[in-house]
Amino acid sequence: MVKQQNPWGGFASSQDTTIALQAMAKYAKAIYRKKGDSTITIRSKSGFAQAVHVDKDNSLTVQKVDLPEIPGEYSVSATGEGFVYLQSHLHFNALPEESEKGYFSFNVSTEPSHWTHASKKEFNIHVDVGYLGKRKNTNMALIIVTMVSGYVPDRESVNKLKKHPLVERTEILHENVTIYLKKISHETVSLEFSVEQEALVENLQPATAFVLDYYDPGM
C-alpha cells in the first residue's frame, strides 16, 4: 500500500484512495495510544541532522523535512513510544531512454470529424490504443478523456464499455471519463462512447486525453 501511495497521500484513482484511507483509518484506530510521544531524527553522513517530534497534539499533522543533498545517504532513528508513519519521496525530471519513447500508440478522434458546437448536440469519441514496448502486454492501464467545455459524457454509452473483455471498469469524475483496462497488448484496442451538449459555450478549446500504465504512471 505504501508503494502505491503518491506524495500527496492519495492513490491512482478516487476509488482506490477511498478504500486505502478506510483501511489506514482502521489500522490507526487499532494502534492508537493516548499516551506517549516520540522523536524521529534524520541524519546524513555530511552532518545534516533534523529532529521531528510527534505527540498526541500533532499526531495527525503531516510534517515535512527537505533533504539538502541529493543524491545523499541518510539514516533515521527513533526514540520514545508511539507509532510514526514515515515516507520518503524523490522527484526529478529526466528524458526517457530511446527504448521507452512511444510506449503507447494512442489516437483519439470524434465522429463526425468536423462539427460545430452550435449545430451538433451530440457526437462520439473514438479511442484507439496499443502497446509498443518490449513486454507481451502492460499492467492495468488507464485512459482518461477530458470533456470539451459544455459537454458531458453519455453515461449509458460509457457503461456499455464494460462489455469489452479488456475493460475492468469505467468512472466518470468531474465530467471526465476514466477507462480501466486490464492490460494493453500489441493489438490495438478500439473503444467508443458518446458525449452530449449540456450548455452552449463560446470559444471552445480542445480537450485532452491520455493513457498511462496504472502501476507506472510516468510511462
UniProtKB/TrEMBL annotation:
Database matches in InterPro entries: A-macroglobulin_rcpt-bd, A-macroglobulin_rcpt-bd_sf, A2M/Complement_sys, Alpha-macroglobulin_TED, Terpenoid_cyclase/PrenylTrfase
One Pfam family hit: TED_complement
Highest taxon of source: Eukaryota
All copies of domain Alpha-macroglobulin receptor-binding, residue ranges: 138-218
Record protein name field: Alpha-macroglobulin receptor-binding domain-containing protein
Organism: Ranitomeya imitator (mimic poison frog)
